[in-house]
Amino acid sequence: MAEFNPQNKKLIAKLVYYGPALSGKTTNLMRLHDVLNPRNCGEFMAFETKGDRTLFFDFLPLLIKSVHGLTIKMKLYTVPGQVAHDATRKAVLSRADGVVFVADSQTSQAVSNFESFDNLEKNAGRVGLDFNNLPLVIQFNKRDVKDILSEDEIRHRWEPAGLPLVFGSALYGRGVRQTFIQALKSIYRGLDHRYHLASGFGLEEKDFLSVVPELPMQRESA
Amino acid sequence: MRQFDQEHIAMEQFDREYLIEELLPPDLLDNVARDLTAMLPDRWALYSENGRAYYQSGQWQQAQVEKSTALIQKNRPQEEMTIHGPDNCRIVLLPVEYDLEVKGYLALCHARPADEAALQSSKSVLNMFKQFMRLKHQTMLTSGLHGMVVEESYAELKSKAQALALSEEKYRNLSANLEIEVQRKTEEIHVAQTHMMQQEKMAAIGQLSAGMAHEINNPLGFMISNLTTLKSYAADLDMLVQNYQQLASLCNSLPEVEATSVIQSRCMSIQEVERNLDSAFLLADIPVLVQESIDGAERIQKIVRDLRTVARPGESKRESINIHESIDAVLTIVQNRIGPNIAIQRAFSPVPLVPGYPQEVNQIWLNLILNALDAMDDEGILGITTQAANHQAVVLISDTGNGIAPNKLSKIFDPFFTTKDVGRGTGLGLHLVYQLVLKHGGRIEVRSEPGKGSAFTVRLPTAKDN
């Protein structure tokens, strides 16, 4: 759960990148670190084992300073995707204000996606998150590789959930920004509802989104 | 699980905000303080975000500290600031930034204005602090997470152990009850089996009783016939004796002159009677008939005696048993079951007495001999051999019957195993034999060849003093 302290004008929120093993959660965070303004970006902290598998989590703190003097600290985490690290996943997921679910587009990973999503729902329940109202964005990653599910197929399966759906290729930076923007929008809606950020403090969605620079549009289309 | 989740949420979160006192703890600063003196002025201090001087190096005056605290609390400066303190000293406050946030302040007390070199080295110290803080932060994140994971794993293990303990208890109860239940069933089966064994004994004897009746009836028949004949012989002889008595009295009463002719005629008529009676045959036949009857009675006497030997209802006293007498008694009992085309080869060698229960030992021979006869279908050789060997009486009972298939050989002593037609065999005959042999401390072996016959060897231990 976010911490909001109106006295020192500080809001701390947590966004967790969830998903099956090797779906590109860490890559999402690294690319995001690349495109964000260093003014807003703390140091990227990764805990990797051999072969680039995340052992504990990755951590990227962001700082957004609004014109109204409010400071928003957004902590981005990834979970380890491997089934065995469920306890770690649970600990990282706890108190999340939003989740980006990074799915693997490869046809061979369809089952892993569903299992991981199921695991997300279960763990959300275990750590006391209201899954139905949890800000959640789905990213189908690895659109650049062969043997992937078609967009129609994915839309057909996932759109009924009514969640924002983004297609991406995190390795090349595609979809990373858009996913993050969708996540920020969802989180803002949730926090505004709870803390009346707009009416009480003049903090609007665009302030939230200001952390994402316009600049990398060229990279997006590259 | 629910209980655990509550524990889990109550735990300190690894991803909380950390204070400068945690990221740059005094013990760490103690370790590097001496190395820092080259880079920093004599007096330096670290202030927390809210202005508390949590670490001091050198002799600070209370007034200087208080002034810095007040400034921090009032302005929360984001940039470098200089305070002119008491005693002509200048205090420079440098914000300690970490992850874009000001976590606290490094306060430096300069006696005179700091030169460029001094400023540069204090910036290096700030950078060093940043690296310390990053490492400390990483350690706290990972160890905090590790703590949570271990806590969870432990709680999960605990609940698993609890579940296991519960199920173990369940199974322990079950197994305890199971033992009692099995014991009860075993007793039930034992009672039923004992009952059936008794029935098997009675059945074997009952099977014989029809034949026994015939055996007894036969001699009785000719004995009655003989006695009837003897009764008519007695009447004839009585009449003859009367004639002789009359003749004797005539001899005494008649005058001598008349006597001779009267006696002569009288003798003639007696002779006539004797001829009619065929008294010579009659007198010769009497001992024959009597002897026959005596033989018949003796046969009955033997049968009854042997039947008693074999059946011995109600007797269960341990005795010294003569094996040969025991076998012969059984042979008598089964006599009627031995068809005309069955030859009995009986080869007895001297055998010491065997201690045991006579009725039970008889039952062994009875069941083995009846089985042998059943196997032969009215034709063949029933062999009974005895010999003494190594403190044992060895009895071999063989037949030339159907034999037993090799795959069935190991089962024949099992209860309820039978190859006989339904209703003929109970499947307990050989099992009973096996039990009785065992009870007498003996052993039983079987050799068999299908189509050629079977041979059972029973070894019973003889009395020790033999």
Which characteristics define this entry?
heterodimer; A: about 220 residues; alpha/beta; Rossmann fold; 8-stranded mixed sheet; globular; B: about 475 residues; alpha+beta; Beta-Lactamase; Heat Shock Protein 90; 3 domains; 5-stranded antiparallel sheet; 5-stranded mixed sheet; 11 helices; 12 strands; rod-shaped; disordered N terminus
Give an overview of the whole structure.
By secondary structure, chain A is α/β, with parallel strands linked by helices. Chain A has a single domain (3-221), classed as P-loop containing nucleotide triphosphate hydrolases (Rossmann fold, 3-Layer(aba) Sandwich), CATH 3.40.50. Chain A is built from eight helices and eight strands, in the order ββαβββαβαβαβαααα. By secondary structure, chain B is an alpha+beta fold. Chain B has three domains: 9-159, Dynein light chain 2a, cytoplasmic (Beta-Lactamase, 2-Layer Sandwich), CATH 3.30.450.30; 204-308; 315-461, Histidine kinase-like ATPase, C-terminal domain (Heat Shock Protein 90). Chain B is built from eleven helices and twelve strands. Chain B has helices at residues 2-10, 20-23, 26-36, 62-75, 116-253, 256-277, 279-311, 323-333, 358-376, 406-409, 429-439, and strands at 43-48, 53-57, 81-84, 90-98, 101-110, 319-321, 342-348, 354-356, 380-388, 392-398, 443-449, 453-461. In chain B, strands 2-1-5-4-3 form a five-stranded antiparallel sheet, sandwiched between helices. The longest helix of chain B is centred in the middle third of the chain and has 138 residues, at 116-253. The radius of gyration of chain B is 61 Å and the shape is rod-shaped. Classes of the chains: A alpha/beta (222), B alpha+beta (466). The A-B interface holds A 3, 12, 14, 39-43, 45, 47, 56-57, 59, 61, 63, 71, 73, 75, 77, 87-88, 90-92, 94-95, 126-128 and B 1, 5, 8-9, 13-15, 17, 99-101, 134, 137-138, 141-142, 145-146, 148-149, 152-153, 156.
